[in-house]
């Protein structure tokens, strides 16, 4: 009987993160949560989907926990990356290790069984991601049906949307029977300004009270280098619109980045500028993610 051959290990096509995160200039409060990070590899155990847009270097659970400890972050949320499509084994295995307080957001299609949803919930899954920016992602057409499936678990739908589509997609999001989360402040190009129709659509969703936004990935929005001063007005406007619906994230390991790779300590320090009020920062870093992702300890 023939033995299947192992697929060859593909070389990375994108850079990896800064492997030496520095300590932030202000101490993060106990219970602080990083609400968006990806894991990759090792490829031999967790092969990438052949239709992927990029090949990342390994970024393992051990690597991520090291980053969180260096930053003083107490909790983390793993988000299924596009290179794995609907194969959620890596982040589910990471949850199963119970090495660090973690939750996860998966990608799944309409064929997922109720039993699998129940299993994932028990492991710590709290949402389903729909990446509408790339054709290889799961279609947004499944959003209403998926929302009905996950509503009994108290999960949310997490969206990554093309900026120019927020005006038309906003009413659809508002009509869903579950809370929703928008990736990376909507990734509105800063040149459009905070008065642009797409960003105003996001503010309306946030003000409605059932839509959350991740204050993350400033380097994906702006044209200016760190500390991304052209992004600050967007972050402040979101916090002002509804601080109870803001969460923060590193976006580690910063995939497909063509700009200088940030140090995660520098990304933490942005919060002191975006949210100067300590009580509001505590809400964004601790209280809000505890509610959204169901952290109870």
What would you say this structure looks like, in words?
The protein is of the alpha/beta class and 297 residues long. It has a single domain (33-293), classed as TIM Barrel (Alpha-Beta Barrel). The protein is 32% helix and 13% strand. It contains nine helices and eight strands. It has an eight-stranded parallel β-sheet. Helix 7 links the parallel strand 7 (211-215) and strand 8. Helix 5 (166-175) packs parallel to helix 6 (197-207) and helix 6 packs parallel to helix 7 (232-241). The longest helix has 16 residues, at 278-293. Mean pLDDT is 94; it is low at 1-5.
Q: Stretches where pLDDT falls below 50 for ≥5 residues?
A: 1-5
> Which geometry do the CA atoms define?
globular
Lateral arrangement of strands in the main beta sheet: 1-2-3-4-5-6-7-8
CATH architecture: Alpha-Beta Barrel
| Average pLDDT, all residues | 94
Number of distinct helices: 9
Q: What is the CATH topology classification name?
A: TIM Barrel
Regarding CATH, which class?
A: Alpha Beta
* Helical/strand content category: alpha/beta
Global Rg? 18 Å
What's the CATH H-level homologous superfamily? Metal-dependent hydrolases
Strand content: 5-15%
Spatial gap, N to C terminus: 52 Å
How many domains in all?
1
Q: Tally of extended strands?
A: 8
Following the backbone from N to C, one meets helices and strands in this order, namely: EHEHEHEHEHEHEHEHH
State the helical fraction: 25-40%
Largest sheet properties = 8 strands, parallel
